[in-house]
Specification:
- By secondary structure, the chain is α+β, with helices and mostly antiparallel strands.
- It is 33% helix and 12% strand.
- Strands 1, 2, 3, 4, 5, 6 and 17 form a seven-stranded mixed β-sheet that branches. A four-stranded antiparallel β-sheet has the order 10-11-9-13, with helices on one face. A two-stranded antiparallel ribbon has the order 7-14.
- Helix 2 links the parallel strand 1 and strand 2 (51-54).
- Helix 2 (35-46) packs parallel to helix 12 (427-447), helix 14 crosses helix 18 and helix 16 (543-557) packs across helix 18 (594-605).
- The longest helix has 24 residues, at 283-306.
- Residues 1-18 have low confidence and may be disordered.
Length: 623
């Protein structure tokens, strides 16, 4: 028996199956422990790519888990892709939407360790995904058409496509990608809130703690932290501070209330934010600064216990796998921002149809959070006031560095301005950005072309097929029967949305069930650069009247419609097409709804085939 085992081992070694000095090869390598990293790894693997994921943290999920920011900011009505899948897993774990609506800052709050377990389960379910946790990386070079990545203690790997899944853009910087850091100048971005001159100031970070209710007087109380002064926190809530507008202390705590009697401590108003810019710092320098950030949070918790009497609350002993019971990493709101093929600025969020570049046409992800910056802990940070914004989209080009081929960005280092980062940095947006980075990497590896060469419409269709959104339509849920058709038509400019700033969950309306008006088609024709048909009557557009509009777009895009030559034949053809597409039996005089127009235009014109765009949304066929 032993002789047989030795014989089989010898055959295995001689066959070349085990070559310890030969790097393992993958289609996609994702480096980092950010929220976008796990999303990129999962989607690349699901898209058929042999995928490698390595990060220094013991948990997947970045700010959602390791950093403890387990109250989802935004996108409650836009459950796109992996964000919606992750939320559904939370619902299943806790018992439905009501069970996670525990605090007032969010409709979805959870214990960080539960989120980490969900990501772990998702990763284990992907046979194409190889994961190394608590793994740093060394040199990263492009050698013979592959990325060569050194892994201390593990040897080396090779990969066709590299994805930066770090919070701060560390991988992109290591391979030479150009980036911006800090506040852009108003002259550079054209954004009114930006300062006149650029600076290197980024947003405050936070070292989150999770408190647990141990029962009256039973919580483990902290020793007095270094540099503690009770006056620092005197006005965090109204119980002692008489300043107008302060919240009751329990209401302040309930901001981040989590299931199972826990509280996320991430309070910005005279609370536990901390200013530090870690970009360009060594690991040792970062660790020293992060310890000071932890002390900021410990002082805050000590004040809650000693001054406000919350002796039933203490650092949770069943949350983070850390000796000090603090989060595993800081919540970085901002770091590097790469120079991408497209850069999202405030103007693209405010006015997507009149901005200098039509980024919405190349959209691959959505967000609805206001522009929100944290600068209270930096006394030299200039004051900035931000206008309310509607919901918005992120274009494919924001994920693609302009100067390093075969590299994609999956986390907060996507190409946006400093101002726009205040909206794009949130968890659901980064989950989507990571997912699309993984999708693009898999397509790039399979087709043997750099990510910058991928057809945007191919990427967008893959996003839709993966459950994602291109455009942030509040009134067209992903489960709607004609969701994809409307998304495609709108991304081609055939139907324009209407943005609405609304509290902390902004909106864009497409009004799918409203009557299609001539004015809407005139605006769409102007947007795509097509001449409007002559003699068009104002008011609702009937099925019969739609024929001339479709004819005009067909000529403009050189998109053959394949329908009869005579007018009545075309009307009959449209009727048949409408019935086949699930729109029902529509008489010639029927006034189309906006969604019906989008479905018919999508079916006949096939805009994703005949109206291609580049990574910034510019037409590729001279329209």
């Amino acid at each position: 028996m032993m002789r047989n085992l030795f014989f089989l081992l010898a055959l295995w070694l001689l066959s070349g199956c085990a070559k310890p000095d030969e790097p393992r090869e993958y289609d996609v390598a994702v480096l980092g422990s950010g929220t976008g990293a796990i999303a990129a790894g999962l989607q690349a693997a699901r898209s058929g790519a042999q995928t490698f994921l390595a990060g220094p943290m013991p948990w997947h999920g970045g700010m959602l888990t390791s950093a403890g920011v387990s109250a989802i900011d935004g996108n409650h009505h836009l459950p796109a892709g992996l964000w919606g899948e992750f939320r559904q897993e939370l619902y299943q774990h806790y018992g439905g939407p009501e069970a996670v609506a525990t605090g007032w800052v969010s409709m979805t709050q959870f214990e960080p360790h539960v989120g980490a377990a969900i990501f772990e389960k998702m990763a284990r379910g992907e046979p194409n995904l190889t994961v190394l946790k608590e793994q740093k990386w060394g040199s990263i070079k492009r050698v013979d058409g592959l990325w060569a990545i050194e892994l201390p203690g593990q040897g080396a790997i090779r990969a066709k496509v590299l994805i930066d899944g770090t919070d701060l853009g560390d991988v992109a910087a290591a391979v030479g990608a150009a980036f911006d850091l800090g506040m852009d100048s108003r002259e550079d971005t054209g954004e009114a809130p930006a300062p006149q001159k650029p600076n290197s100031i980024i947003q405050d970070l936070t070292y989150v703690a999770v408190l647990k209710d141990y029962g009256p007087g039973q919580a483990p109380l902290l020793q007095e932290p270094p540099a503690y002064e009770a006056a620092e926190f005197f006005c965090i809530c109204e119980d002692r501070c008489a300043e107008p507008g302060k919240l009751a202390c329990q209401q302040m705590l309930d901001y981040g209330k989590l299931p199972n009697g826990k509280y996320m401590i991430n309070w910005p108003i005279e609370g536990n934010d901390y200013y530090y810019n870690p970009v360009g710092q060594t690991d040792a320098q970062r660790m020293l600064a992060y310890e000071r950030a932890k002390d900021q949070t410990r002082r805050f918790v000590y004040y809650l216990q000693q001054e406000l009497g919350y002796t039933h609350l203490g650092l949770a002993d069943d949350e983070f796998p850390s000796e000090d019971r603090m989060a595993l990493m800081p919540y970085h709101r901002e770091g590097r921002r790469v120079h991408g093929l497209a850069r999202v600025g405030l103007q693209h969020m405010l006015n997507p149809y009149t901005a200098p570049l039509p980024l919405y046409r190349a959209a691959i992800a959505v967000g609805d959070y206001p522009v929100d910056h944290h600068h209270d802990k930096n006394p030299v940070a200039p004051a900035m006031e931000f206008p309310p914004v509607p919901s918005f989209s992120i274009p494919a080009g924001s994920l693609v560095p302009s100067d390093v081929p075969w590299l994609l960005i999956a986390d907060k280092a996507i190409s946006v301005t400093n101002v726009a980062n205040g909206s794009t940095r949130l968890q659901p947006v980064i989950l989507q950005a990571g997912q699309v980075a993984g999708l693009m990497a898999a397509l790039s590896a399979a087709q043997g072309i750099a990510p910058s060469e991928l057809p945007v419409r191919l990427v967008q269709q893959a996003v839709l097929d993966a459950g994602g959104y291109l455009l942030p339509f509040y009134d067209l849920p992903a489960g709607s029967p004609h969701f994809q058709a409307v998304q495609r038509a709108a991304a081609a400019g055939l139907l324009l949305g209407e943005g609405e700033p609304y509290k902390w969950a902004n909106r864009t309306w497409i009004f799918p069930d409203s009557a299609l008006q001539t004015a809407a088609l005139l605006a769409a024709f102007e947007e795509v650069g097509a001449p409007a048909p002559t003699g068009t009557a104002q008011g609702p557009v009937s099925l019969r009247a739609a024929v001339q509009w479709l004819d005009g777009l067909s000529a403009h895009w050189q998109a053959p419609l394949g329908w009869p030559e005579d007018g009545e034949g075309r009307v009959a053809y449209l009727q048949q097409l409408a019935e086949k597409a699930g729109l029902g039996v529509l008489p010639p005089a029927h006034n189309l709804t906006r969604a019906q127009w989008a479905v018919l235009a999508d079916e006949l014109l096939k805009p994703f085939e005949h109206a291609p765009v580049d990574m910034s949304g510019r037409w590729l066929r001279g329209q």
